[in-house]
Amino acid sequence: MTDKPLFLMTDARHFGVTYQIxxxxxxxxxxxxxxxxxxxxxxxxxxxRKELEKxxxxxxxxxxxxxxxxxxxxxxxxxxxDGRALVARFRxxxxxxxxxxxxxxxxxxxxxxxxxxVIELPNKILQEGAGDCIWDKDRGFFWAGYGQRSTPNSxxxxxxxxxxQVVGLELATDRFYHLDTCxxxxxxxxxxxxxPAFTPQSLGMIRxxxxxxxxxxxxxxxxxxxxxxxVNIDNHIVMAKAPASLRAKLKALGYSLAEVDLAPFIxxxxxxYCMTLRLDRQSGNQAAMRAAE
Length: 293
Description:
Blueprint: E1 6-10, H1 27-32, H2 34-54, E2 58-62, E3 78-81, E4 84-87, H3 93-96, H4 98-111, E5 117-119, E6 133-136, E7 141-146, H5 154-162, E8 166-170, E9 183-185, E10 191-193, H6 200-209, E11 215-217, H7 220-224, E12 231-233, E13 236-240, H8 244-252, E14 256-260, H9 263-266, E15 277-278, H10 286-292
Parallel strand pairs: 1-2, 4-5, 7-8, 10-11, 13-14
Antiparallel strand pairs: 1-15, 3-4, 6-7, 9-10, 12-13
């Protein structure tokens, strides 16, 4: 067995921006030059994979599927912890076809011993995976976004499946439609987040659980660059091209950065975190996991 971080990514060959289900999506821009943008997307996805591997990670790839362009964002496919995958259910019809594709991919990973359980959500619950439910390793609980894509009734289900505490955060605007677009726990107990994306009550929850010195507030420019949507491996952060302001803040705190040009994917409202799903997260609380079975 290896202790290298394990991530899931998707072949980007069928990526495109062909519809609009969030305010960032630019089907008009994509339509203006699809061949060049398709080539750029393939190059960007390859560069992201290389940066993850340089940081010590292993990467599994899901095959592309025609007419499912957002399959390139597997963060939304499931919540994964302690080998258990809770498969997502999408709000928008445009993405619902992804559910069966990812379910099949998770079952294949289970057959290979890379997952132990693949679990379905109950009916009438919407939950869009790790994009809306982020494990905080330092605090030992999940942060869960709701109000834009995922429904609040998903929170007790997550607690039951994983045997872990879940802190719910209501998202205030459709510009930041998933938690991962505006909130990123970092190694060492710090949290990078964009305050205007949250309701006042949710900001209060963040301030309750995260000390002031550990809260890194992103600016509007930094959030719009999809740099909060980052992958953190120990003190290394992989993200989209960052404004100098964020680069300076993070480096001053001892983090090393790898920046990748993800411009084609930002046209769809996604960044580095959206394009990955970590499969090997462990809670350190196996007894709780077994109790939930």
